[in-house]
Design brief:
The complex is a heterodimer of chains A (316) and B (499).
Chain A lengths: L1 H13 L3 H16 L7 H9 L2 H15 L7 H16 L3 H25 L4 H20 L4 E2 L2 H8 L2 H21 L1 H11 L1 H6 L4 H27 L1 E2 L7 H11 L13 H19 L4 H19 L10
Helix pairs in contact in A: 2-14, 4-9, 4-10, 4-12, 4-13, 4-14, 5-6, 5-7, 5-12, 5-13, 6-7, 6-12, 8-12, 9-10, 13-14, 14-15
Chain B lengths: L3 E12 L2 E12 L3 E5 L6 H8 L7 E6 L2 E3 L4 H6 L2 E4 L11 H5 L8 E2 L2 E2 L1 H15 L15 H13 L5 E5 L7 H16 L3 E5 L3 H7 L2 E6 L2 E7 L5 H9 L20 E10 L3 E9 L3 E5 L6 H8 L7 E6 L8 H6 L2 E4 L3 H5 L6 H6 L3 H4 L8 H14 L16 H14 L4 E5 L7 H16 L3 E5 L3 H7 L2 E6 L2 E7 L6 H8 L1
Classes of the chains: A mainly alpha (316), B alpha/beta (499).
Chain lengths: 316, 499
């Protein structure tokens, strides 16, 4: 009996570190399987180039999930914002960045409005907006992809320092707000018990709305980095970003129901873990289809093991 | 020596960390009214709920007339000869009186898959007439009748089939004197027919006059069984509490004048469907009590004052003219609120004690750029958790691990930390053991003396009488009388205004 208790407490102590251990292990495993190719500088750079968008967009969704919500419209938000970035890049690059953020925030506000004011569960709202804006993107890109100011974009894309810098800025601001101000405590309280949080003086409705706007804006910002890489927007821009984010966060140790156990580390470790995993599978010569299948299985296993069933009913 | 009807053997039940019933064993005889008493949370309702199949048994057993019984639900319990009359409404709205009486036993009136409503109504009416409740018509919707009459329907429902055991669970608090007499009459009749009543009540006088035997529980543990003729009120209290109950359980002062200074003024507040045209003033240093039946709207008053009511009309104004229309405004203006629904509305269960205590004070704890120092928060939480003597490992522990009393202490610690001046306490001692209760009463008395004002909403009449300067009684969503603090008030005075 006592032994069992010790085991359990060891497991509870270890649990926050499991994703980090997993990240290191998976990297090493792929490194061995690919015969050391994973730690070549060129490969590392390629790997890194796939992390930026995911990590930035995950920060916003992380806030949403901490509150116990979900957002399936992230891919469509990225696509919509990318359109804005492309159109505006022909005028001015700074304007393009701002435009992307504004469009992202606007879609987030639509999500927030239906979720908070019309009181519809967030996953239903965001699935609706996912389809709605995917439709808009397909309409806008029908015929030909929308291209931006290709030359400037290529120049910007060649600067790794810029992309790393922008990603770091978003992640560090998020980390600071979440860990060192009342922001994180409030979001966690909403996730752990919204009604009690409201009676504790938190403006729950306003916070929920603003977080959806914020998450949209952050992904709108990520659209800039996504767009300079390709220079144009096709109908599939941002496709499945929402599932990638969800998988990344869960792999990173994020409790799917949010609440007090959410930690910003989930964003960083999770997006790295996801990227290493898909990059590694790709290096092993797996097709996209097989990669997706394996990711799906891994996601299911993680959720089955780690989901806190007692609080599953509170997903909003 | 009378025959044993029910043997309770080594019964246990836990809810999470709370041991609601611990290894309880005793016997109940045929042909007696057997009272079960104890403070809130002593496990008496848990025990009878297990007997009636509402809760499952963790371990131990019930032996009824020599055979182990293990009802899986209330209908099953009925079939085994056990029935219950509950504290709150036990009849279902939207059904007729007859349908309520025969709930779960409709099969008797079904032939070839068709229910014979006429036969059912006829038999129900015969029963009602036999009980002397001719004014109730079996074919009427039960909604047409008031609380009292619905209770009478319940009495019929629970006893018409001459069950071996009838549990009467705090039913009398909700009844007028007349209704009580009616219930007593049938309790005696059932006893004289050789069956058994298990009687739960908080009214000691009632227990002593009505019951033949008394069993006392305390904190889920069996204390003893005695014939009621060997006990008096003080003896009972001593058994319930485990020590002599001194005079300072509630506050002891009488006749202190209430200050003229109004700190909170409520005018014409209406929340549709809940409360109507409520106006009152709260004075400095006053404990203002609200009492009534659970559905009287009194719980909504607390929310309305705290700016938490949806769709409220009317005004709630502070002494300085500030209007309270939202929770953040209320908190900013040093108001505090504890909900009756502690687990959902007061504490954030799956969050640490520390975060729970700091929650309303985050703004004042934050430094430049809104940066919160972890150390400062920990010290703050520790200071007030210690002041309230919360039983915990440390402030990182989740609130969900704590007992009801300790959760309430966390909530109070939060508001003491915020240094609130006006406290709206809804059912502050609900489900809390006697020791913590006393702590909370003493805290309220200290706060009152230091000039803080308290609105106390409670379903426990004794604590209202014991603690409040004024008591306002609610009925059907409206104010229905006000009583000043006085030694001579007893529960019956309040009940008369409640129903």
């Amino acid at each position: 009996m006592a032994e069992n208790k010790n085991k359990k407490s060891l497991m509870t102590k270890l649990r926050p570190f499991l994703p980090i251990i997993g990240l290191v292990l998976i990297f090493i495993i792929f490194d061995i399987l690919t015969g050391g190719k994973m730690h070549e500088v060129a490969k590392l750079k390629l790997l890194l180039s796939q992390v930026y968008v995911l990590m930035i967009a995950s920060s916003g969704v992380f806030f949403i999930m901490t509150m116990g919500g979900l957002d399936f419209s992230q891919g469509s938000i990225l696509g919509m914002a990318s359109l804005a970035v492309c159109y505006l890049s022909k005028i001015n690059m700074i304007l393009a960045v701002i435009g992307g953020i504004v469009v992202g925030a606007a879609v987030g506000a639509i999500n927030g409005y239906f979720y908070v004011n019309r009181k519809i569960k967030s996953f239903i709202v965001t699935i609706c907006t996912m389809f709605l804006f995917r439709g808009v993107i397909k309409f806008m890109t029908s015929g030909a992809p929308v291209s931006g100011d290709l030359l400037t974009m290529m120049n910007l894309n060649s600067s790794d320092a810029l992309k790393i810098g922008l990603t770091l800025v978003v992640v560090l601001i998020g980390l600071f707000l979440f860990n060192f101000t009342g922001f994180g405590i409030r979001l966690k309280a909403i996730g752990a018990g919204e009604k009690a949080a409201m009676f504790g003086g938190i403006r729950t409705d306003r916070t929920k709305f603003l977080i959806y706007v914020l998450a949209g804006a952050i992904t709108g910002f990520a659209a800039f980095i996504a767009t300079i890489k390709t220079g144009s927007v096709t109908y599939s821009a941002g496709n499945q970003l929402e599932t990638q984010i969800l998988i990344a966060l869960v792999l990173g140790g994020m409790p799917i129901t949010g609440g007090a156990k959410a930690s910003f580390l989930n964003v960083i470790v999770g997006s790295l873990l996801y990227t290493v995993l898909s990059f590694g599978l790709n290096m092993l010569g797996m097709t996209t289809q097989t990669t997706q299948l394996i990711q799906g299985v891994i996601f299911l296993i993680f959720v089955a093991i780690f989901a806190d069933r007692k609080s599953l009913k509170v997903i909003k | 020596m009378s025959e044993v009807r029910l043997q309770v053997q080594n019964l246990c039940k836990t809810f999470g960390v709370t041991k609601a019933v611990q290894n309880v064993s005793f016997d109940i005889n045929k042909g007696e009214i057997h009272a079960l008493i104890g403070e809130n949370g002593s496990g008496k309702s848990t025990l009878t709920n297990m007997l009636c199949g509402i809760y499952t048994i963790d371990s131990g057993k019930f032996i009824l007339d020599g055979q182990e019984v293990h009802p899986v639900n209330q209908v099953d319990a009925n079939n085994k000869g056990i029935s219950i009359i509950v504290q709150e409404l036990g009849t279902l709205s939207g059904l007729t009186v007859a349908e309520n009486i025969f709930l779960g036993h409709e099969d008797r009136f079904v032939k070839h898959g068709i229910k014979n409503a006429n036969a059912m109504n006829k038999e129900a009416q015969t029963l009602l007439d036999k009980y002397g409740f001719n004014r109730i018509k079996a074919s009427d919707m039960v909604d047409l009748y008031n609380f009292e009459d619905r209770k009478l329907v319940e009495i019929v429902k629970a006893t018409y089939f001459s069950p071996k055991i009838v549990v009467v669970d705090e039913t009398t608090t909700a009844l007028s004197q007349e209704g009580r007499e009616e219930l007593y009459k049938h309790m005696r009749r059932i006893r004289d027919e050789g069956n058994t009543i298990i009687f739960i009540s908080h009214d000691m006088q009632e227990i002593l006059t009505m019951s033949d035997t008394i069993t006392v529980l305390r904190d889920g543990v069996y204390i003893g069984t005695k014939p009621s003729c060997e006990l008096d009120e003080d003896g009972l209290k001593k058994m319930m509490v485990g020590r002599e109950v001194t005079g300072d359980y509630y506050r002891a002062d009488y006749g202190e004048p209430i200050s003229d200074e109004v700190v909170l003024s409520v005018k014409n507040v209406t929340v549709p469907g809940q409360i109507y045209d409520i106006s009152f003033d709260l004075h400095k240093g006053e404990i203002l009590g609200f009492g009534g039946l659970s559905e009287s709207g009194m719980h909504e008053i607390g929310k309305a004052c705290f700016g938490a009511s949806y769709n409220r009309k009317g005004t709630v104004t502070l002494a300085n003219g500030t209007q309270i229309n939202s929770i953040p405004t209320a908190i900013k203006n040093e108001m505090a609120y504890t909900s009756k629904d502690r687990d959902n509305e007061s504490v954030v269960m799956n969050q640490s004690i520390g975060d729970n205590i700091c929650m309303p004070s985050l703004k004042s704890l934050a430094g430049a750029l809104g940066v919160l120092s972890k150390k400062k928060m920990r010290n703050f939480a520790n200071e007030y958790a210690k002041e309230m003597s919360v039983k915990m490992v440390n402030t990182d522990q989740f609130v969900s691990d704590l007992s009801g009393g300790n959760k309430q202490k966390v909530v109070l610690a939060r508001w003491i930390g915020k240094d609130s001046d006006i406290l709206v306490l809804d059912s502050p001692t609900r489900g809390i053991d006697i020791k913590v209760k006393q702590d909370i009463y003493q805290l309220m008395d200290r706060m009152r003396k230091s000039g803080k004002s308290i609105i106390m909403i409670s379903e426990e009449l004794m604590e209202l009488i014991g603690m409040c300067d004024r008591i306002i009684i609610m009925k059907d969503g409206r104010l229905n009388g006000e009583l000043m603090r006085n030694q001579d008030i007893d529960e019956n005075t309040l009940i008369a205004k409640m129903v």
